[in-house]
Design brief:
heterodimer, A: 354 residues, alpha/beta, Peroxisomal Thiolase, Chain A, domain 1, five-stranded mixed sheet, 10 helices, 13 strands, 23% strand, globular, B: 74 residues, mainly alpha, Non-ribosomal Peptide Synthetase Peptidyl Carrier Protein, Chain A, 54% helix
């Protein structure tokens, strides 16, 4: 069982950075009258920040990291580990953390490490990086997590285009013997993975002229019929509303946590239907379940830290917070955690400027 | 069966519940949509503790077909 108890590590700050361009769901051209409003009501998503061709994950991660380091007052020389988790790397064979390392002007003694994961990515990489700090003698780590997931969507799809937005985040972690333990329960349902797979363009199915043409048409929004199927929305929905409550309940049971004592439940912001269904099954009152979908949509691996920054900054800045979180999706898999923070640095959401 | 049909009909707003029977080909209802499909999945999880997948919905034609899947797994 992947239960992790990580001692002596605390989160010191969280920041988020989004691209400046915004797409309003009510302005998406292909909807019939009234359809966009119906989708906005069901998903909770009114608009999304879109990276466009010129902005990549390394840019948004740099924006989030630079602001966080500034507000923390951390010297660049004090960072030992720069980790980055994304499914949308700038390049195929260069880990994106190296690009951010160079742009931040970090020194040669920093260890850079990329993780490849989707929506559960923040919790998965947080459990890994915090374990490294706890066990290795490393003192400070910067964990950068986010995606430009809008770039992967079929622009003609009535179902997926209104959901996805782009964002990256930075989380500052420090070895701290006074820190309460971070607790994790991570899990895997790999036989459901086909519900969220993009089959073409990797090394199993490299693009051919034909499949590349289809891919370009998807991204341009000129694919008239949906010829590629990269998300089974119904499978993902039933996975999320059944596995996520169970994972969080198991986490609470394993570590004797009282779910009523947590200050907030921050779920991966898939869409409002999913967030509401999970909260209902855990009997969490709506005021303890922040939702940041309206302005940002589903931002994949960035969504949990982005929601902390956009919806709960004051609470995290001003005192102790007991948070239950769960990222879920890609894999299929889930990463759930209980984290206590105390007066952390949370800058306003950064709008990226190139 | 009648209870299942009533629960199924509850997921619709504009469709009269008297229109829905075991023989109803639900994907032909005007109001049927991907959003209603999700609320049916949520209802079945909540009321019957059964997990429906996308293939179950796609493979079913009538409300009775869905009921039989739920019954076989409950």
């Amino acid at each position: 069982m992947a239960f992790l108890k990580v001692d002596n590590v605390s989160i010191k700050g969280i920041s988020a950075c989004v691209p400046p361009s915004v797409e309003e769901n009510k302005d998406i051209p292909f909807y019939a009258p009234g359809e966009a409003e119906q989708i906005i009501a069901a998903t909770g998503i009114e608009r999304r920040h879109i990276a466009g061709p010129d902005i990549c994950v390394s840019d948004l991660c740099f924006g989030a990291a630079e602001r966080l380091l500034e507000e923390l007052g951390w010297e660049k020389d004090s960072i030992d580990l720069l980790a980055l988790c994304t499914q949308n790397p700038d390049y195929r064979n260069q880990p994106t953390s190296f690009l951010v390392h160079e742009r931040l002007g970090l020194n040669e003694s920093v260890m850079c490490l990329d993780f490849f994961h989707g929506c559960p990515g923040w919790v998965m990489s947080l459990s890994s990086v915090s374990s490294m700090l706890s066990a290795s003698g490393l003192k400070r780590a910067l964990l950068l997590v986010g995606d430009t997931v809008s770039k992967d969507q079929n622009q003609a799809s009535h179902e997926s285009r209104p959901l996805f937005g782009d964002a990256c985040t930075a989380t500052a972690l420090e070895f701290d013997p006074a820190a309460p333990a971070m607790l994790f329960n991570n899990g895997t349902m790999s036989d459901g993975g086909k519900a969220l797979i993009i089959t073409q363009g990797g090394y199993r199915h490299p693009y051919t002229h034909e499949t590349l043409d289809i891919e370009i048409a998807r991204r341009n929004g000129t694919l008239s019929v949906r010829q590629t199927d990269d998300m089974d929305g119904m499978d993902v929905f039933s996975f999320a509303i059944t596995k996520v409550p169970k994972a969080l309940k198991k986490l609470c049971t394993e570590f004797s946590l009282d779910i009523e004592e947590v200050d907030c439940l921050i779920l991966h912001q898939a869409n409002k239907l999913i967030v509401d269904a999970i909260a209902k099954r855990l009997k969490m009152p709506a005021n303890k379940v922040p939702v940041g979908l309206r302005q940002f949509g589903n931002t994949a691996s960035a969504s949990i830290p982005l929601t902390i920054v956009s919806e709960c900054a004051d609470a995290y800045r001003s005192g102790k917070q007991k948070s239950l979180v769960c990222g879920f999706g890609t894999g299929l898999s889930w990463g759930s955690a209980y984290i206590e923070t105390n007066h952390i640095v949370v800058p306003e959401v950064v709008i990226y400027q190139s | 069966m009648n209870e299942f049909i009533a629960n199924f009909a509850d997921q619709f707003e504009d469709t009269d519940s008297s229109e829905i029977t075991a023989a109803t080909e639900f994907k032909n209802l005007d109001e049927w949509s991907s959003l209603i499909a999700l609320s049916v999945i949520a209802m079945v999880d909540e009321e019957y503790d059964v997990t429906l997948k996308g293939d179950d919905i796609r493979g079913s034609v009538t409300v009775g077909d869905l009921f039989n899947i739920v019954k076989s797994r409950a």
